[in-house]
């Protein structure tokens, strides 16, 4: 059942490319227009949506944070991302024009279920992004967009995360299509770029696993890991930190790279690892330079620096002790590849420490109590 892999988590990480591919399948026509027939909300209703609130927990909430960057950019409506358990208790502003998007792998997370019930009571529409057919969250939602990642057994979520990002992006592109906020050509181009992602993820798996494993060995005795990223790299940093704490029981913190100087830099200690998600260097945009100078600063304080960076980035090598390389891809799609070495890093650390990677202590695959 593990298909020759030592653990479900290892198998599921290697299914990241298929999860992305299968979630895209059948969601666009020949030309590249988005077709979401299964989502039974009238286009007119979608057209009227003026705000999105994503509610989710854990990994699913980080997928929501990634989607915020893309959907706001493409659709020009505000997207809030709220931890489901915080949402209901803060008197959120919900109207019939608000679309609440509940993201959940299992479809059974009680915190997320309670949040969507509250949203529907307030008259908002709820669309579920879910990996489990017929589970409670899609059943109680107005519409569902299934992620086709296949069953996820390991407690730490991996392939579901990349599939959730893809599903949320399809929703964003569909909204852009019905609201005319992108030209058809632009949508077709993004669809083509999405279709190219499974091969890029596969390339990371094929070429970076050795470097990741050597890094895990090198860092096995580290006391704490810091993860930092900017823009879409920020939720990826949060997700990398979560994976490592969940299964390797390492104290980790993920944060926005821009916050470094506002506090976290005080945590940097000689020899302790800092993992940095580096945006594309193409055009040497300001974000790239700022993140590089963040690496420089932690390096100057003795940190062991690990970067996730785009192939061909000639700046990163100056300050990074080790680099996990990503193939060139559009910034908004980079989380689909950037998270892969971080999933592998957590897996390798846990495995090398002799822990049960599929069933980490104290955690359950789905938490059905509030
Ligand atoms: C946690 C799981 O309890 O619930 C995480 O351990 C998961 O892996 C989170 O991300 C949310 O679960 P779901 O099923 O709602 O996506």
UniProtKB/TrEMBL annotation:
Domain SIS: 41-181, 215-360
Keywords: Aminotransferase, Cytoplasm, Glutamine amidotransferase, Repeat, Transferase
GO cellular component assignments: cytosol
Catalytic function, reaction form: D-fructose 6-phosphate + L-glutamine = D-glucosamine 6-phosphate + L-glutamate
UniProt EC number: 2.6.1.16
Listed GO biological process terms: carbohydrate metabolic process; fructose 6-phosphate metabolic process; protein N-linked glycosylation; UDP-N-acetylglucosamine metabolic process
Subcellular location: Cytoplasm
Catalytic site positions: 365 (for fru-6p isomerization activity)
Chief location: cytoplasm
Top-rank taxon: Bacteria
Molecular function per GO: carbohydrate derivative binding; glutamine-fructose-6-phosphate transaminase (isomerizing) activity
Subunit structure: Homodimer.
Function: Catalyzes the first step in hexosamine metabolism, converting fructose-6P into glucosamine-6P using glutamine as a nitrogen source.
Stated name of the protein: Glutamine--fructose-6-phosphate aminotransferase [isomerizing]
This protein's encoding gene: glmS
């Amino acid at each position: 059942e593990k298909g020759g892999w030592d653990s479900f988590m290892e198998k599921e990480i290697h299914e990241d490319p298929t999860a992305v591919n299968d979630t895209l399948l059948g969601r666009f026509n020949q030309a590249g227009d988005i077709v979401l027939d299964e989502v039974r909300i009238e286009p007119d209703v979608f057209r009227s949506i003026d705000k999105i609130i994503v509610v989710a927990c854990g990994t699913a909430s980080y997928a929501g944070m990634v989607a915020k960057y893309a959907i706001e950019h493409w659709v020009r409506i505000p997207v809030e991302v709220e931890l489901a358990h915080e949402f209901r208790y803060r008197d959120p502003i919900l109207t019939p024009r608000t679309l609440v998007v509940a993201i959940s792998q299992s479809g059974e997370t009680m915190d997320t279920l309670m949040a969507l019930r509250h949203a529907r009571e307030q008259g908002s529409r709820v669309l579920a992004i879910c990996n489990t057919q017929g589970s409670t969250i899609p059943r109680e939602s107005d519409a569902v967009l299934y992620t086709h990642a296949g069953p996820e057994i390991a407690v730490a979520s991996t392939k579901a995360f990349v599939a959730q990002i893809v599903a949320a992006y399809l929703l964003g592109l569909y909204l852009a299509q019905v609201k005319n906020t992108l030209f058809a050509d632009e949508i077709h181009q993004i669809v083509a770029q999405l279709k190219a992602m499974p091969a890029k993820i596969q390339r990371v798996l094929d070429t970076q696993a050795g470097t990741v494993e050597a890094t895990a060995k090198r860092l096995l005795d580290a006391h704490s890991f810091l993860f930092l990223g900017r823009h879409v790299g920020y939720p990826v940093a949060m997700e990398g930190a979560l994976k490592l704490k969940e299964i390797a029981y390492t104290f980790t913190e993920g944060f926005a790279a821009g916050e470094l100087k506002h506090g976290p830099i005080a945590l940097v200690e000689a020899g302790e690892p800092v993992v940095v998600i580096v945006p594309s260097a193409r055009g040497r945009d300001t974000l790239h330079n700022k993140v590089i100078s963040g690496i420089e600063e932690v390096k100057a304080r003795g940190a062991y620096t690990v970067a996730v960076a785009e192939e061909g980035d000639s700046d990163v090598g100056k300050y990074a002790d080790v680099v996990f390389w990503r193939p060139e891809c559009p910034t908004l799609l980079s989380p689909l590849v950037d998270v892969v070495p971080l999933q592998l890093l957590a897996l390798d650390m846990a495995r090398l420490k002799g822990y049960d990677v599929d069933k980490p202590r104290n955690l359950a695959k789905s938490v059905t109590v509030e």
